[in-house]
Design brief:
The protein is an alpha/beta fold. It has helices at about 1-25, 30-35, 40-60, 65-90, 95-120, 125-135, 145-170, 175-195, 250-260, 285-290, and strands spanning about 315-320, 325-330, 335-340, 345-350, 355-365, 365-370, 370-380, 385-390, 390-395, 405, 410-415, 425-430, 430-440, 445-450, 455, 460-465.
Length: about 475
Amino acid sequence: MAELASLVQRLEVAVGRLEAVSGTGGAGGSAAGAGAVSAYVEAFDALISGPVAEYITLSQKIGGDVQKHADMMKQGFSCQRQVLVTASCSQKPSDAIVTSLLAPVSKVIEQVQSFREQNRSSPLFNHLSAVSESVPALGWVAMAPKPGPYVKEMQDAAMFYTNRVLKDYKEKDKTHVDWVKAYVSIWTELQAYIKQHHTTGLVWSKSGPVASASGAPSAPSGGAAAPPPPPGPPPPPMDLNQSAGGDSSATSRSALFASLNKGSDITKGLKHVSDAQKTHKNPALRSQAGPVHTGPKPFSAPRPTASAAPARTLPPVLELDGKKWRVENQEGAQGLVISDTELKQVVYAFKCNKSTLQIKGKINSITVDNCKKMGLVFDDVVGIVEVINCKDVKVQVLGKVPTISINKTDGCHVYLSQGSLSCEIVSAKSSEMNVLVPGKDGDYTEIPVPEQFKTVWDGKKLVTTATEIAG
């Protein structure tokens, strides 16, 4: 079945090549037709027929939301191929036209990310998240001068979720493991492709016509629209011999220099002001002239020109959905409690701000995602507690937990119990992390988690150790 799907994918690529050639063929279009199947377009076709086709085949085998996501990704690579075909036979147009050419790719990226947000309750959410976090890599065509490192950064963003897929299915279903390998290989192969053909950015043709917003090169003649006229001549230089009113300023400049050359005699032409004419010595004049402001005007905030659109707020959620406790959109909710728990249940807290949540009993796992200034207290977890994309959160263990994962989080305090001192704390792309360990007298000792590391080559492998910043 996989071989059949791969064959279908290659046929689609071949048809795409023929369509590209036929679309730019005809008299005078042979160069463009040859450019449509240039070396780097053929290399990109190999990428599509290789890891991309394998990823799509495995996604179809998994089915469900993963298959729907893969259909979107397939469309994204198809749109990107069209951009490469255009660039291979056209000169680079203006930035505005380049943006319009990349619009279909941008639309696919947005669709992929929106699909993940709309399906947070999906049992394949980790698969969707891995794709959603890394799909911006398709935007490498707009990156210069380092598109390759940009793709690597997006690939690394998916690693957290691909590792979770591997952990969940390593002993259950090899298809999901193969799916991860195929998907990750797409970005690995894309980096190698970029390094070979587009090291410093998307390469445009140097001899073809300038590309148009429609994606096809604009023909210079022969019934097509004529190229835009060259820009008009620059405005004439300002005549320095003319004053603002149009009169000659030679006389006025001479008078100015003559006045400056007077030195101290320049004040002789000033009118003398008597005490009777001074407002600070004559209150009557002050009242006639109105209020006198002796200093600068006080600062006042500018008045808004238009009322800002109200922020969209979603209703708070605290409910059991199957085996998942959903705690979402809580604002300033102190004292949230989940007490009727079972071992097979999980808790997912999303976008909770300035709130506290207590979980009683023993459950499977806890995930805290996109929360700010949140406090979490729980008894026992048999799996993992994950803190993702959060700011200023506090986590307290009352019982036992084997692993706590902190990812993309700024400010996280973990309070361990005596029974959880053997807990493993895994962190990535996070800062301001502190672990508080209880002492015999009940007081906590705060220990910062290292954020800076030193890596050296010992002759056989890389050795990484934590370093301390001297203050």
